[in-house]
C-alpha cells in the first residue's frame, strides 16, 4: 500500500488524493503541515530533500516527489493515462502548462491569501503579477475548452486532475471565473466523475468498496 505524505489544504497534494480516489486505490495518508515546518524536519528531508509535499512512498524507502510525476506513476496503465503516444504528449503538455503558468500564479495566490494568516499584506507587491498571469493562464484554458470537454484524449485524464487542483479554488483567492463559462462547465464535469472527492475529504471517510472511475483498469 502507498504511503502519501500530503497537506490537506494543498492543491498539489489534493491532485494526488483525487487521482487515488478516482482509481479506488488504497493508501495510507500522512498529514504534513508545511505551515508549521513539518516538511523541514531532518526526518522528512531525508525522504525528500526539497522539503515539499506531496511525497509518495512507492516501496519501502523509495519515494516519489513532484505532484505531476506522482500522478503519472499512480495513473499509469489506467484509463486516466492516455495510451497513444501523441495523446500522452498532449496530456504532458497541459501538465507542464499547469506547473509553469497556473500553479505559480493561482497556486501562489491561494497559498498566501487563503492559507497564510496575514499573507495578503506580506505579498501585496506580488498580487498584481499573480492576477495578470493567472488570468492569462485561465484564458488559455478557456479557449481550449470552448470546443473540447477535457484537455487531452477526449476524456478525463491526468491532465484534467493536474489542472483541477488549483483552478477549482481560484475563486478563494480573488479570481473571478464569471467570464470563463467553459472552465466552469469543465469543473462541473470533473466533479460529476464517479469516485470524485473534494479537497476536504479524508480517505477514512469512504467505504473501501466504493468503485472509482478507473477501478480494475
Q: How much helix is in the residues?
A: 40-55%
Count all strands and give the number.
Answer: 4
The first-to-last residue Cα distance is: 17 Å
Q: Assess the beta-strand content as a share of residues.
A: 5-15%
User: Order of helices and strands, N to C?
Assistant: EHEHEEHHHHHH
Largest sheet: 4 strands, mixed
**Tally of separate helices:** 8
Structural class per helix/strand content?
A: alpha+beta
Oligomer description: single chain
Approximate shape: globular
Radius of gyration: 17 Å
Please summarize what this structure is.
The chain has helices at residues 11-22, 42-47, 67-75, 85-115, 119-122, 124-145, 158-167, 181-191; strands at 2-6, 27-31, 55-59, 62-65. With 217 residues, the chain is α+β, with helices and mostly antiparallel strands.
How would you describe this protein?
The chain is α+β, with helices and mostly antiparallel strands. Helices cover 48% and strands 9% of the residues. The chain has eight helices and four strands; from the N terminus they run βαβαββαααααα. It has helices spanning 11-22, 42-47, 67-75, 85-115, 119-122, 124-145, 158-167, 181-191; strands at residues 2-6, 27-31, 55-59, 62-65. Strands 2-1-3-4 form a four-stranded mixed beta sheet. β1, α1 (11-22) and β2 (27-31) form a beta-alpha-beta unit. α4 runs parallel beside α7 (158-167). The longest helix has 31 residues, at 85-115. The chain is globular and about 45 Å long. 36% of the residues are buried.
Amino acid at each position: 500500500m502507498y504511503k502519501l505524505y500530503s497537506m490537506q489544504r494543498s492543491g498539489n497534494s489534493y491532485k494526488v488524493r483525487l487521482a487515488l480516489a478516482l482509481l479506488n486505490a488504497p493508501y495510507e495518508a500522512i498529514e504534513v503541515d508545511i505551515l508549521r515546518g513539518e516538511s523541514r524536519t531532518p526526518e522528512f528531508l531525508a525522504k525528500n530533500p526539497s522539503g515539499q509535499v506531496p511525497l509518495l512512498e512507492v516501496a519501502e524507502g523509495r519515494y516519489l516527489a513532484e505532484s505531476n510525476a506522482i500522478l503519472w506513476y499512480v495513473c499509469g496503465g489506467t484509463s486516466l493515462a492516455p495510451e497513444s503516444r501523441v495523446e500522452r504528449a498532449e496530456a504532458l503538455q497541459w501538465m507542464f502548462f499547469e506547473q509553469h503558468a497556473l500553479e505559480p500564479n493561482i497556486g501562489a495566490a491561494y497559498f498566501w491569501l487563503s492559507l497564510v494568516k496575514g499573507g495578503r499584506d506580506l505579498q501585496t507587491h506580488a498580487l498584481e503579477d499573480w492576477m495578470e498571469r493567472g488570468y492569462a493562464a485561465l484564458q488559455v484554458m478557456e479557449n481550449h475548452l470552448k470546443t473540447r470537454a477535457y484537455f487531452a484524449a477526449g476524456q478525463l485524464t491526468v491532465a484534467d486532475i493536474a489542472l483541477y487542483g488549483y483552478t477549482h479554488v481560484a475563486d478563494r483567492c480573488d479570481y473571478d471565473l464569471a467570464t470563463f463559462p467553459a472552465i466552469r462547465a469543465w469543473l462541473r464535469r470533473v466533479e460529476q466523475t464517479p469516485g470524485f472527492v473534494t479537497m476536504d475529504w479524508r480517505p477514512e471517510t469512504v467505504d473501501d468498496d466504493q468503485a472509482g472511475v478507473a477501478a480494475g483498469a
